[in-house]
Q: What sequence folds into this?
C-alpha cells in the first residue's frame, strides 16, 4: 500500500512534465502537418507553368490578328478622334457651300446688248425712249409716274395695261428702273418701301435679270427755286437710299448725274428746257452714259452678251 502511494505521489510530481511533453508533441506534430500543405500550395503555380524548354510555337490553327483596310483605319481613327470627325464634317460642309458671285465692273457695250432690256420709269424714261432709244429696248414710262402708282399705272403703251403685263410676256436680261423725281415731296421711308416693292415684283417675274437703278437726276437751279421741293439735299438723300440697294452682283447703281451736274447739285441750264428733263438734242447723253456702263457676266446664261470692246 505504501508502495502504491509512493508511486502515485511520484506520478503527480512528474505530471506537469508529462503534460508539457504531450502538448509539445501535439504542437510539433501539427506544425509538421501544416508545412507540407503550405509548400504544396506555394509550388503549385510553378509546377503547372511549363518551362522555357517546354513552350512550343503557336500552332497554325490559332487565328491571326484581323487585317484592317485603309477605309476601316480611317473609320476607326475618326471614331477615336472626335476632333478629326468635326474637322472632316466642317470641311465637307464648307465645300458644299456655293461661293458668292464676285462684284462685276461696268464696261462699254453696244446696242445689241439692249435687245433684252426693259426701261421702266417716269416721264424721263418715256422721253428717252422717244428721243434717244437704244437698239430694240422696251420702254415703259409715263408722265407723273411714281413708285406709289407705277405698278398699276397704264403707261399708254398699246397692248399693255400695266407693268405686270410687260413682265409676264417678255424675257428680260436687264431691267432699268428710273423713279424718284416726282416723289421729292414724300418722306424717304414710304418712298423706299414702294421702291423696293417694284424691285421685288421685277425679281419675281424676271429672276435672272440684271437690275439697274438709275440715279435721280437733279433739276435746274431755277426749277428748284420755283418749285420748293426739288432741293439737292432731298434728291441726294433719296439717291443714297437707292444706292444702298445695289450689291454690285445682280443690282447696280447708275450715277447718271455725272453727265448733267453743274457741281452745285443742279442740272446744267444748257441741257434742259423745262428744268426737269433733258432736251431732245441732249437726251443722247443719258443713252450714251448707259451704254458705257453695261454689265457683262459671261457665266450667266440670261445675259451672255459681249461688250463692244471685246467684239472690236
A:
Amino acid at each position: 500500500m505504501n508502495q502504491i502511494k509512493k508511486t502515485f505521489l511520484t506520478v503527480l510530481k512528474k505530471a506537469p512534465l508529462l503534460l508539457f511533453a504531450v502538448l509539445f508533441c501535439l504542437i510539433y506534430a501539427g506544425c509538421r502537418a501544416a508545412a507540407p500543405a503550405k509548400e504544396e500550395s506555394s509550388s503549385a503555380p510553378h509546377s503547372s507553368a511549363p518551362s522555357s524548354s517546354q513552350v512550343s510555337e503557336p500552332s497554325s490553327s490559332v487565328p491571326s490578328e484581323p487585317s484592317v483596310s485603309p477605309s476601316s483605319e480611317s473609320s476607326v481613327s475618326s471614331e477615336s478622334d472626335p476632333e478629326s470627325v468635326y474637322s472632316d464634317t466642317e470641311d465637307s460642309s464648307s465645300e458644299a457651300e456655293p461661293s458668292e458671285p464676285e462684284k462685276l465692273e461696268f464696261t462699254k457695250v453696244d446696242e445689241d446688248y439692249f435687245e433684252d432690256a426693259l426701261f421702266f420709269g417716269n416721264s424721263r424714261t418715256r422721253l428717252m425712249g422717244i428721243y434717244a432709244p437704244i437698239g430694240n429696248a422696251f420702254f415703259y414710262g409715263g408722265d407723273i409716274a411714281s413708285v406709289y402708282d407705277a405698278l398699276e399705272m397704264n403707261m399708254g403703251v398699246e397692248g399693255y395695261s400695266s407693268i405686270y403685263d410687260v413682265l409676264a410676256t417678255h424675257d428680260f436680261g436687264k431691267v432699268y428702273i428710273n423713279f424718284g423725281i416726282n416723289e421729292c415731296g414724300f418722306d424717304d421711308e414710304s418712298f423706299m418701301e414702294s421702291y423696293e416693292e417694284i424691285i421685288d415684283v421685277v425679281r419675281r417675274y424676271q429672276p435672272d435679270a440684271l437690275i439697274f437703278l438709275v440715279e435721280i437726276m437733279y433739276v435746274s437751279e431755277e426749277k428748284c427755286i420755283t418749285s420748293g421741293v426739288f432741293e439737292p439735299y432731298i434728291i441726294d438723300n433719296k439717291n443714297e437710299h437707292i444706292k444702298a440697294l445695289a450689291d454690285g452682283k445682280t443690282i447696280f447703281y447708275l450715277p447718271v448725274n455725272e453727265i448733267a451736274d453743274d457741281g452745285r447739285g443742279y442740272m446744267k441750264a444748257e441741257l434742259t428746257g423745262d428744268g426737269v428733263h433733258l432736251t431732245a438734242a441732249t437726251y443722247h447723253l443719258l443713252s450714251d452714259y448707259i451704254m458705257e456702263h453695261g454689265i457683262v457676266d459671261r457665266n450667266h446664261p440670261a445675259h451672255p452678251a459681249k461688250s463692244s470692246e471685246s467684239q472690236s
